[in-house]
Write a structure and sequence with these properties.
This protein is an all-alpha fold and about 375 residues long. It is about 75% helix and about 5% strand. It has a three-stranded antiparallel sheet with strand order 2-1-3. The two termini are about 45 Å apart.
Length: about 375
């Protein structure tokens, strides 16, 4: 049997070799402010455990390097990722001096590079397996449950990010609620406004270019600049319009963040509505007309259902985009996970930055997987109905 190299596997093997043998696995700091001291895998873990982790990484790297069966690649990536997330908790306990409550143990660059490399391998395997939408959602649920059990077990309690969470638990969930509300609320507003506007642009060709050009211009404005531009007009509204301030409308805070996210959300919703409706087969419309359906009946009974997967793709883009952009809202007092990101930057506390960044990335990742699955199921259903 001749073993052949896998192109992606060569990259993964090289990255994992560097991360395992040259990059630090964990960082020890006497407290949350002082510079950290790098620790390799063998220094951050008990000798036997460290050697075992290196053996797992080397074996998984060899599996990735060559063209091996997908089942073996799936097992190698899953086992390596599980070993990494479990043993970084062991490193936290091993490196923390007994009775010391000030020491901070953080995952270092080697850990994050290894996580990236074997997540890439896992994603490649799952793509090649062409899992069904339900299977992908199921894999996401299993991963979420595994991480939840890991956090509940206390295995990571000695890691600095969990210590930061313990000190800010109430604030974390309050800001998380604001973050989700901003992302979902602006999406809902954009759908309510964008769908009718997209339908109008599809029906009135002269209106289409003007509306899409204006929305394109808004999309090119940097987020911080747009937040800043909204401060003055919303501040004027809060001062001069009775009842506006009582509703929470003011120059800084949630209002400008919500309006900015709403404006950013309009282009994908409107554009995908136009594209989706334009892609409805002429034969379907002709058949509907032949049956005596009115324009309204054709829109809601034929055109909109057939265009729905494309429209849903725009909504998916908006949701993932808004989850990320909502982080910037903290700069103008809008709250969200960005509060921890910018506090961490100001205090040079990387673990506090991660406390805001990690859940943001996780939310965006989960939203993308779930909506991709919904889009695929919807598109498949439409193809079956029209066949």
């Amino acid at each position: 049997m001749i073993l052949r190299f896998d192109k992606l596997g060569v990259v993964i093997a090289a990255i994992s070799a560097y991360a395992a043998f040259a990059a630090p696995f964990a960082t020890f700091r006497a407290n949350r402010i002082v510079p950290g001291q790098a620790r390799s895998i063998l220094e951050a873990l008990p000798a036997t455990t460290g050697t075992l982790l290196l053996a797992i990484i080397v074996a998984a790297g060899l599996v990735a390097l060559f063209k091996t069966p997908l089942a073996l690649r799936l097992a190698a990536s899953a086992v390596t990722l599980a070993a990494l997330v479990l043993l970084i908790g062991v490193a936290g306990t091993f490196l923390t001096p007994a009775g010391n409550t000030f020491a901070r143990i953080s995952p270092a660059s080697g850990f994050w590079i290894l996580i990236f490399a074997f997540t890439l391998l896992l994603a490649d395997v799952l793509t090649r397996l062409t899992l069904s939408p339900w299977a992908r959602v199921g894999a996401l649920v299993v991963a979420a449950l595994a991480i939840g059990l890991l956090l509940i077990s206390g295995s990571w309690d000695n890691l600095s990010i969990l210590k930061e969470y313990a000190n800010r638990a109430d604030s974390f969930w309050a800001e998380g609620s604001k973050h989700v509300t901003l992302a979902l609320g602006s999406l809902a507003a954009a759908v309510i406004v964008g769908l009718p506007l997209g339908i109008l642009c599809h029906r009135v060709e002269r209106l289409r270019a003007g509306v899409l050009n204006v929305l394109n211009i808004i999309q090119t404005i940097p987020s911080i600049a747009l937040f800043g531009l909204l401060i003055a007009p919303l501040g004027w509204v809060a001062t001069h319009v009775p009842g506006a301030a009582a509703l929470g409308i003011r120059g800084i805070g949630t209002a400008p963040a919500f309006v900015a996210l709403f404006l950013y959300s309009l282009l994908p919703v409107v554009a995908n509505t136009v594209v989706g409706l334009a892609g409805v087969p002429r034969a379907a419309n002709d058949a509907a007309r032949g049956m005596g359906m009115t324009d309204r009946q054709r829109l809601f009974g034929v055109e909109f259902p057939l265009a729905f997967p494309v429209i849903l793709t725009g909504i998916r883009i908006v949701l993932v985009q808004n989850i990320g952009l909502a982080t910037i809202a903290a700069l103008i007092g809008g709250g969200g996970f960005g509060v921890f990101v910018f506090q961490g930057v100001g205090q040079t506390a990387m673990d506090l930055v991660l406390l805001g960044a990690v859940p943001t990335v996780a939310l965006a990742f989960a939203a993308a997987i779930i909506l991709d699955a919904v889009i695929e199921m919807t598109a498949t259903k439409r193809r079956v109905e029209t066949a």
